[in-house]
Specification:
It is built from 12 helices and 13 strands. The chain is flat. Strand 4, helix 6 and strand 5 form a beta-alpha-beta unit. It folds into 3 domains: 36 residues, no CATH class; 113 residues, Roll (CBS-domain); 110 residues, CBS-domain (Roll). By secondary structure, it is α/β, with parallel strands linked by helices.
């Protein structure tokens, strides 16, 4: 029994080195798999440990192809947005993005596939909000589709979604975000000239100054079209929207009016812009915290605001894309 016992003891002693080697290999593999997520986790922690998933809503707003210009206008107008993802109807895969600018630049094009941008910039739900902010800031876009690993659309995020997530953390004031790219015009400028300025600058709204250089109003491209009820109905019908089931925002009406003007070559009236501008516009002080501007933009559904000093002198215009830079500092 003693001899057998000794043999049994010796065998496991000889195999010990082999057992140690077998355990050592997986230990190294585990270290590699644990190590890789750490940098991503650390980057989240710097800005509140949030990912794109944290600001996604359950609603998926998109336009489907095959589709038409009218389909896109209906979605943009109904949800009061400037752009929307375009999705393949059968596969639910993202195939593009269409914006109001795309539509207005090609007023004679009917097919959605020929209007949309076929190479959209995208992001994934597990990417950081800081990455989303970088994309908005660098690409100057307002519609960022969120997709899964197979290219299926999950949702869409916009600059204001990211700004709202960081509003309490941003320490900048509005004046820090001004870029100097605003184009103010005099209140007696003729409406046709205003339309030319809008087209050249690609702006969607312009601040209006009175004879003393004070902010007296703001004009958006849609304000330039004052149609009678009959003309509005005709224009909406012309572009396939405005039926009994359509509940369109002012943006939707504006888009139809602008398209009506472009395709029919309707001449704008020779009247001063002060007759069609929005008087006493919502503005923000240049020394106000950025979060105040974010709150006003969300409340009134604007993406830009005139910025004034304590004497109501216009000092610029700030947009949601301008303020995104505050997150990246």
């Amino acid at each position: 029994m003693n001899a057998v016992h000794k043999k049994l003891v010796k065998k496991p002693v000889k195999k010990m080195p082999a057992v140690k080697k077998a355990k050592a290999a997986p230990a190294k593999a585990v270290k590699r798999t644990v190590k890789s997520p750490e940098p991503a986790h650390a980057s989240h922690a710097k800005k509140g440990a949030r990912t794109v998933q944290s600001i996604l809503t359950g609603e998926k707003i998109c336009v489907y192809v095959p589709g038409s210009r009218s389909d896109a206008l209906r979605v943009l107008g109904k949800y009061d947005i400037s752009g929307a993802p375009v999705v393949q109807k059968k596969t639910e895969q993202l195939v593009g993005v269409v914006t109001r600018t795309d539509i207005l630049r090609k007023p004679d094009e009917e097919q959605l596939a020929l209007l949309m941008n076929k190479n959209p910039i995208t992001i994934k739900s597990n990417d950081t909000l800081e990455k989303a902010a970088s994309i908005f800031h660098e690409k100057q876009i307002r519609c960022l589709p969120v997709i899964d690993g197979k290219g299926i659309l999950i949702g869409t995020i916009r600059p204001m979604d990211v700004l709202n997530a960081y509003s309490e953390e941003i320490t900048d004031v509005v004046g820090d975000c001004l870029t100097g790219c605003s184009v103010p015009i005099f209140q007696d400028t003729p409406v046709p000239v205003v339309m030319t300025i809008l087209n050249i600058t690609k702006a969607t709204a312009l601040p209006i100054l009175d004879g003393e250089g004070k902010l007296s109003g703001i004009v958006a491209d849609g304000d330039l079209f004052k149609f009678s009820t009959e003309e509005e109905k005709a224009a909406m019908s012309r572009f396939g929207i405005g039926g009994s089931d359509d509940k369109l925002s002012w943006e939707g009406v504006r888009d139809a009016m602008l398209l009506y003007h472009q395709t029919t070559k309707t001449k704008l009236p020779e009247v001063p812009v002060k007759q069609v501008m929005v008087k006493d516009p919502i503005s923000v002080f240049k020394d106000a915290p950025v979060k105040v501007a974010i709150w006003k933009m969300r409340k009134y559904n604007f993406n830009q605001l005139p910025v004034v000093d304590e004497k109501n002198n216009l000092v610029g215009v700030v947009s949601d894309l301008d303020m995104i830079a505050s997150i990246l500092k």
